[in-house]
Sequence to fold (360 residues):
Amino acid sequence: MLEWTPQELKRRIRTVPDFPVPGIRFRDITTLLKDGPAFRAAVDLMWAQVADLDFSKVLAIEARGYIFGSIIAYRKGVGLIVVRKKGKLPAETISTTYSLEYGSAVLEVHQDGIAPGEPVLIVDDLLATGGTALAAAELVQAAWGRVAGFLFLVELDDLQGRRRLQIAPVFSIIHFREDE
Amino acid sequence: MLEWTPQELKRRIRTVPDFPVPGIRFRDITTLLKDGPAFRAAVDLMWAQVADLDFSKVLAIEARGYIFGSIIAYRKGVGLIVVRKKGKLPAETISTTYSLEYGSAVLEVHQDGIAPGEPVLIVDDLLATGGTALAAAELVQAAWGRVAGFLFLVELDDLQGRRRLQIAPVFSIIHFREDE
Fold:
C-alpha cells in the first residue's frame, strides 16, 4: 500500500468560505472522510502519534471527535468517554461552559466515566482556538483524571490554540494557515 | 481473549427511566463504551455481522452512530459519510424531515458523498421506531445510492423499527424489551 503524506491528505479537505458565519474559512473534512484510503491513512497517522502514549481512556468531543476518538480507543483497547452538548447525557454529569471560535456552549461528561488519576487522551477533529479542547481538559480535571495528551486531525496554526493546551502534549497531522 | 456474548454486553448498558421525557426508558450505552474490552467486543460483534456484506460507503448517523460507523468504515477500508442535523454541513446538501420516538428533526448529507448505484451501509447505535434509519435510507436513495444494510448495536424489539426497514437486511447485536 502506498504511504500517504499529510500534504496529500490535506488536499482531500475542502475549504468553504464564510461558514458557518462570514469571515470563517471552514475546513470541511467530509471530503476526506468519504475517500476510504485517505480516511484510513489519516486515522493511521493519528494512531502512530499516540500508539506509545500512556492513556487508559479516550475522551471524544461531540460530534466529529467521535469519528476519530472511537477508532483510537478501539485500537488501543481502552474505553471511550463521550463529551456531549448540554442535556443529552442521562445520568449524573460534570459540565463546563466555554467560548468557541464563533459562539459559546456547554459540554458535559458522565461523572462515572473517569477514574481518579486515570490518564485520558482528548480527541477531536480540529484544533482552532483551543477553547473546546481546554473545556474538555477541565472536565477531565474535574473528574480527577489526568490529561495525557490532545490529538487532532487538523490544526489551524494561526489561531494558536496549542498555546492554551500546554498542560499536555498536542498532536496533529494536517496544518492550515488562515490564508490557505 | 475471552469471548463476549451479547448478553454480557447488554449488562454493560444502563437503563435510565424517564429520559429525555417521561415514559421513555433510555438505554445508555456510555457505560459500555467506557469499558475498553466490552467496547472492543461490541464493535467486533457488529463487524462480524457485515464483514462479508457488499458495501463501499458507510453512512453514520449523528452523533452516536459515528462511534460505530467510523470503525466499521475503517475496518472495511471504505469511505465514511456523515449524516448531520440541519445546518451543520457547509456544502450542497440533500435533506429529509422525519419524526423521532420523541420529537422530530431534519437530517442532511452532502450531495457529493454517494455515487450513483453505490452500496451504502447505514450505521447507528440504536434502532427504536426506525424513523431515523428510514430517513437516512431516504437520503441514500435521494443521492441515487443503494442501501446495502442497516447495522445497530442495540435494538428495541417492541418498537418494531425493523418492520419499517424491509428494503435491506437489518443487523443488531443487543435486544431490549420495553419491560426490561
